[in-house]
Write a structure and sequence with these properties.
By secondary structure, this protein is an alpha/beta fold. The chain has eight helices and ten strands. Its cofactor is Zn(2+).
């Protein structure tokens, strides 16, 4: 039984306050994220699009944009750290921006948001301080400042997003902490499943673009292993659409991957708790997924 709340009763403000009091800072957003955004390649510029209201000085929010956009080139959105505890989403986005993005200059324009949820990054949390999941909050009048600020920023840009890659992880703590907390908070039963050992993708069931997902899987295979289906032929309870690919209705679930209306989108899921995983492998898997998506985008654009 989860240590907060009464079984069968959803949390009120008192329980959410109890939960918040148990959280603590475990790492530094300033040291691990912001310092890495000070020496960008010449092709990118840093733009502050807001700050989290919990502590505006501690948690400024940044996007990295193409400094001299190429007319006619597609705009690509890369988001990391929507769930702050999913480390390679943040560090993979930064690694791609700093070391790989310049290779696409003149072909692709970028909006890279490395850490959507810096409070979650520091406290290694899925939720924000209000016990709200930002990745279920991409909707009008969002209850999550992280989601609302990102939506307001991206929707204010004078161009459409063609491709959105949202970088995530699936961790053992999903089963040991975050799903039990969700069950307690909402007084609901949670389905159980084994955490898949390996990388997988979540497509949008409304526009799955399987060829895009397959191109990403091919690239990631060169870095790490792809999650196999379980004994029921599923990954985290969902039917496979292709090898290592499942689907969610991203708009219906108010997921980050669904808010832009981009015709191409994919959510990565790295497994950092695998016996064969390292921080470097996890970050490079995120980079490989982005690379596969970009190569597919450019080949698809050229074919039109």
């Amino acid at each position: 039984m989860y240590p907060i709340g009464t079984p069968g009763t959803p949390w009120g403000e008192n329980e959410k306050r109890q939960w918040l009091e148990l959280q603590s800072v475990k790492r530094s957003y300033a040291e691990e994220v912001l310092t890495k955004l000070t020496a960008l390649p010449e092709t990118l510029t840093r733009v502050q699009y807001g700050a989290l209201p919990y502590d505006t000085e501690r948690y400024p929010l940044y996007a990295l944009l193409s400094k001299s956009p190429t007319d006619g080139a597609p705009w690509v959105l890369i988001t990391g750290g929507v769930h702050g505890y999913e480390t390679s989403g943040v560090q993979g986005a930064i690694l791609f921006a700093n070391e790989y993005s310049a290779a696409y200059n003149g072909k692709v324009n970028f909006v890279i948001v490395p850490c959507v949820s810096p409070w979650g990054y520091e406290t290694i949390n899925r939720w924000n301080p209000k016990a709200v999941d930002p990745n279920r909050s991409f909707k009008s009048d969002s209850p999550a400042a992280e989601s609302q600020l990102l939506m307001d920023f991206v929707n204010s840009l004078p161009f459409d997003i063609t491709l959105h890659v949202d970088l995530h992880e699936t961790t053992d703590t999903d089963n040991s902490e975050f799903r039990p907390a969700l069950a307690a908070r909402d007084a609901i039963e949670q389905k159980t499943w084994n955490i898949p050992d390996g990388f997988y993708l979540v497509a949008d069931t409304q526009q799955p673009c399987i060829a895009l997902q397959e191109a990403m899987i091919r690239e990631v295979k060169q870095v790490t292993h792809i999650a196999p289906a379980d004994d029921s032929g599923r990954i985290i309870g969902e039917t496979l659409l292709s090898e290592g690919v499942i689907g969610y209705d991203k708009k219906a679930l108010f997921l980050c991957g669904g808010f832009t209306n981009a015709p191409m989108c994919s959510t990565t899921e790295v497994y950092p708790d695998s016996p064969s995983a390292t921080d470097e492998i996890c970050n490079l898997a995120q980079v490989a997924a982005i690379g596969g998506a970009l190569r597919y985008l450019l080949s698809d654009t050229n074919a039109q």
